[in-house]
């Protein structure tokens, strides 16, 4: 279906972003006429698909441009997420009767960070100026930390275990962000040392090296989450440092060629599967939202917007 969606977008007389086509195909397959239903486990989805895709985005991100636009990226990753959390939180509080304000902020914190995978998939390459695209991609990669901190504080305040302070939020943000980046860097550095050891004692076997490279984003993500920092930033940091550490430059040519082609294929397939799975969940989400709206006449028509988001 991932390959079919690419063919359909090319034969249509008008231009449709590939991710939107994949969502539409998934929704069509899940419609009662076809009846395809896939159980959706959010935690499994997050572990299986997000780390390799963000690792690939970090791999492709130019370090020089990222540092050059660091001020704009951090400004968007901090200020924009906070403003969005406050704005969406009040909107949810208004359109969903009965939900307290602090839990509304918690839900807004989940919705507010820009999805780097969706951004790169929908916008594509060459459609907007390179500088703006670089800033948007950098912000999408970095805003996870501010979103996680907002969610953590909102949940803690709602449960009565914490009193919100600007200083506490700042410290928590630095812990989540810097800790995630350091975790990704350490795991990437360990991978580089392992590759040098394998090359010295086991020879240059491309298959083994590519398998270990494929496991790198998962290791970065899981280790970071285990120690309480951002696994998403760890996967991004691992991708950004792997090519700058010299490991890929010193790797055999056969390994580099196979690694590039393998990751290009995996990125295409995983991106497509993400949007297909989202489309497969769409009919159930719509039907449950409509049923809830009919059962409770006090719900406003906009109450399904947070669910769809």
TrEMBL record:
Compartment(s) where it occurs, according to its Swiss-Prot or TrEMBL record:
Cell inner membrane; Cell membrane
Which superkingdom?
Answer: Bacteria
Presence of the UniProt keyword Transport in the record? yes
- Offer a single GO CC term for the protein: plasma membrane
Protein keywords: Antiport, Cell inner membrane, Cell membrane, Ion transport, Membrane, Sodium, Sodium transport, Transmembrane, Transmembrane helix, Transport
Q: Which residues form the Cation/H+ exchanger transmembrane domain?
A: 11-283
Query: Could you tell me what this protein is called?
Result: Na(+)/H(+) exchanger protein
Give the organism, scientific name.
Klebsiella pneumoniae
């Amino acid at each position: 279906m991932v390959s079919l969606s690419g063919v359909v977008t090319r034969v249509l007389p008008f231009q449709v972003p590939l991710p939107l086509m994949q969502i539409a195909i998934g929704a069509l397959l899940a419609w009662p006429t076809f009846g395809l239903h896939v159980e959706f486990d959010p935690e499994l989805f997050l572990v299986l698909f997000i780390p390799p895709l963000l690792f690939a985005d970090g791999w492709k991100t130019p370090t020089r441009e990222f540092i050059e636009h660091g001020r704009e990226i951090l400004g968007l990753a901090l200020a924009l997420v906070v403003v969005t959390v406050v704005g969406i939180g009040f909107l949810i509080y208004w359109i969903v009767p009965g939900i307290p304000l602090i839990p509304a902020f918690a839900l807004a914190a989940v919705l507010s960070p820009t999805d780097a995978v969706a951004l790169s998939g929908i916008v594509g390459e060459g459609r907007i100026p390179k500088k703006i695209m670089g800033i948007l991609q950098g912000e999408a990669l970095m805003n996870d930390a501010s979103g996680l901190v907002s969610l953590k504080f909102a949940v803690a305040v709602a449960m009565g275990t914490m009193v919100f302070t600007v200083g506490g939020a700042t410290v928590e943000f630095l812990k989540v962000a810097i800790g995630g980046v350091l975790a990704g860097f350490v795991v990437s550095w360990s991978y580089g040392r392992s590759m040098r050891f394998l090359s010295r004692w086991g020879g240059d076997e491309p298959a083994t090296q590519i398998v270990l490279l494929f496991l790198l984003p998962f290791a970065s993500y899981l280790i970071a989450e285990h120690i309480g920092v951002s696994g998403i930033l760890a996967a991004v940091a691992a991708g950004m440092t792997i090519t700058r550490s010299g490991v890929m430059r010193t790797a055999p040519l056969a390994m580099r060629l196979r690694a590039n082609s393998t990751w290009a294929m995996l990125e295409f397939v995983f991106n497509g599967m993400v949007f297909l799975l989202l489309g497969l969940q769409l009919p159930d989400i719509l039907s449950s939202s409509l049923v809830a709206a009919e059962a409770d006449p006090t719900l406003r028509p906009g109450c399904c917007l947070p669910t769809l988001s």
